[in-house]
Amino acid sequence: MDYLTKTGRRFKHFPMARYAVDVTFQQTNAPAVSFGEKKVFFSKKHGQYGVKVEVSVLPNGLALNVTSAVPGSVSDITICDFNSDFHLEHLQKAGNDGEAVYAGPLSGEYPDSWALLADKGYQGLHRRLRAITPMKRPAGGLLSLEDMTNNDKIASDRVVVENFFGRLKTLWAVASETYTWKRENYDLFFQACVAFTNVHIKFLPLRDEDGHNLNRYVNRMLSSGEKKKGSRASSVKKYREKRKRRLDLFLPNGENDHVSQGVEFFDDSDGSNF
């Protein structure tokens, strides 16, 4: 923190935060394992099989930490809990780090800790770490103007991690395209890409365009996921209709309407359904 202070690279709105944290998702082929094991790699949000990695990024745009990849169904806050040892160690203040000017949110609960910035997927993390997260809109209610302003400030500061992901995925296809190589080598490749991205940023600092690149990448992935969901729904409908016609040959009318209801399907990378 002393180096960031001397170089003037602390966060603008939350100078008491040491870094911003977020998770990135990367699509992979469907694992060649049993359905029960395969399902944990499926992200319902993205509609794809894949893995997630948490990255912590300093205000100067450099990545400080990268976790090992976990299956795509694991929540962001759970990944952060897995990485709690790192956060506790690197948020701990040194002997000369207790400036009152940087008190800020949760300073009373965590007087000896710097803060981290995170998005809405980390709600509740403040109970275990000094985590500054946006306020969620209450059910059936609205956020106050003060809460919305605070949310905008958090988003403005933590955009650095989104810009980092944008640069990472623009530079390295192995970190952005569908990963098809050996899964046990994924961490090695991804962490190498993060290290090389840090070097690139030292020569060419992050800018807003990097964040736009990330948005385009995420939108393409979500669009692909929606198309797969539509195709999967069509396949499920056809399957149920064919099964109903077969059962109609053997069962009295009305006794087979419940068949195949509530069955959850996941599409494989080769287009088959399970």
Q: State the end-to-end CA separation.
A: 51 Å
Q: Tell me the number of helical segments per DSSP (H or I, 4 or more residues long).
A: 7
Broad structural category: alpha/beta
- Helicity range of the residues? 40-55%
Beta-strand percentage?
5-15%
**Strands, count:** 7
Total domains? 1
Overall average pLDDT:
83
Major sheet, described briefly?
7 strands, mixed
Unreliable sequence segments = 269-274
Rg over alpha carbons: 23 Å
The coarse silhouette is globular
Helix-strand topology string = HEHEEEEHHEEHHH
GO molecular function, one term: metal ion binding
Domain DDE Tnp4: 22-198
Protein name: DDE Tnp4 domain-containing protein
Keywords: Metal-binding
Commentary on this structure:
The protein has one domain. The longest helix is centred in the C-terminal third of the chain and has 41 residues. Strands 1, 2, 3, 4, 5, 6 and 7 form a seven-stranded mixed β-sheet that branches. The C terminus is likely disordered. α5 crosses α6 and α5 crosses α7. It has seven helices and seven strands. It is of the alpha/beta class and 274 residues long.
Features:
12% strand; 7-stranded mixed sheet; disordered C terminus; 274 residues; alpha/beta; 7 helices; single chain
Give the structure's gist in a few sentences:
This protein has 274 residues and is an alpha/beta fold. Helix content is 40%, strand content 12%. Helix 5 crosses helix 6 (186-203) and helix 5 packs across helix 7.
